[in-house]
Amino acid sequence: MQWKKQIAGLTFSFVFAVSHFTNKFVLSVLKFTYPTLFQGWQTFIGVLLLLLSAQLGWVEISHVSRSAAVSWLPGSMLYVGIIYAGSRALSQIDIPLFFTLQNSSHVVSYIILKLMHREKTHWLKFISICLILLSGIYLPLYDPQFEFNSYVWALGHLFSVAAYRVFEVHHKSTNFSDVEQQCINYMLSVLLLAVAAYPTGDLMAVLEFPSLHSYTFHCSCCASALLGFLLLLATVKLKSGLSTEHFTVWIFLSKITAMVLSPFIFEININASSLLCVVISHVGEALMIYSERESHQ
What we know:
Largest sheet: none
Radius of gyration: 19 Å
Helix content: over 70%
Oligomer: single chain
Order of helices and strands: HHHHHHHHHHHH
């Protein structure tokens, strides 16, 4: 029924916003900038809850063949890049600016797909891509809190998001579901992040972290892991009942909700020029969603 889809969409938007707020709180307010440990913890709890949910019958995880799992490994590697670089960037960049930079992944995806398939582009989609590209280029110039390293990590994040999106769409294997793909992502992430914890210095540095024994810190880390898992469930539930076009609309609305609410939760340093870049980028995204919807009608 239609009202069930609306409830699923609203639930997704709520979990999406709260999940990003919790991650931002841990990374920026508590200053826990150790992504190998933070993301390793999240993915470790995620895979445990996912396997437990499968045992309870809440989600279905079938046996994945070795060949199918191996074929998905490039996607899992890109997923690690998404969460690692995303944590680095989000720790220093305000949520509205972070989503604006993340939007630039659509430009990278568009270029990759144009190189792979030289198809004619709808004029409205081309305009949307140009708006997103221009806002992404000018945002670093107008960001009052510009920091080179954070934007380098944001660049790595958006390239990983773009490559993952293209790989997911064009992945040939249909032997496993989104839940099973995410389970593989979690498992590889835990392995790689655990191995990288010592070489990156995170493992030793965290022992001197001042809030390590703080009640707020423990609660926030537990909440971030649980919310990440709930976001996965909400995403799977929403995708199963909607077309791709309608699902992207809910993602767009969820980002807008998070950006609008973020100034009430965090201290945000933004000026008129950077705000204009945020608005133009998301106007471009809205046009892109509309153009893709029109092309499928």
